[in-house]
Specification:
Length: 121
């Protein structure tokens, strides 16, 4: 994946509800609110190392679940393939418009485009 923050945000989006409340809170403050470990430690009354341990544990839990399920990997692959299908449908529509003017092809392109849109929701 692109970078560490993006990867962690994706993990949190998919698996965040499986964390403890404390892990969710610290993870959110660190990655989403962009607070430093020291700032979180100061606000919660524990050591910087304690905050780091909670966040690292949360990252590990979510990564382990992703390693076992592969949901994010499959989601990204599906999204990429849906984009390719959409592009092919658009090309098919253009070819039909320029060369064939077939209403049957137009109906098929419309069904493909609608199916792609439904899967992207």
């Amino acid at each position: 994946m692109k970078n560490q923050t993006y990867r962690m945000t994706m993990l949190y989006d998919f698996y965040g509800e499986l964390l403890t409340e404390r892990q969710k809170e610290f993870f959110d403050l660190y990655y989403n609110e962009d607070l430093s470990l020291s700032e979180i430690a100061e606000n919660t009354g524990i050591s910087r190392q304690g905050v780091r341990d909670v966040i690292v544990r949360a990252e590990g839990v979510m990564q382990e679940i992703e390693d076992k399920t592969g949901l994010i990997r499959r989601f990204v692959a599906m999204k990429d393939n849906l984009d390719k299908i959409q592009q092919a449908a658009e090309e098919l529509h253009l070819i039909n418009y320029r060369q064939y003017e077939s209403s049957d092809i137009d109906r098929c392109v419309k069904r493909i485009t609608e199916a792609v849109a439904a899967l992207k929701e």
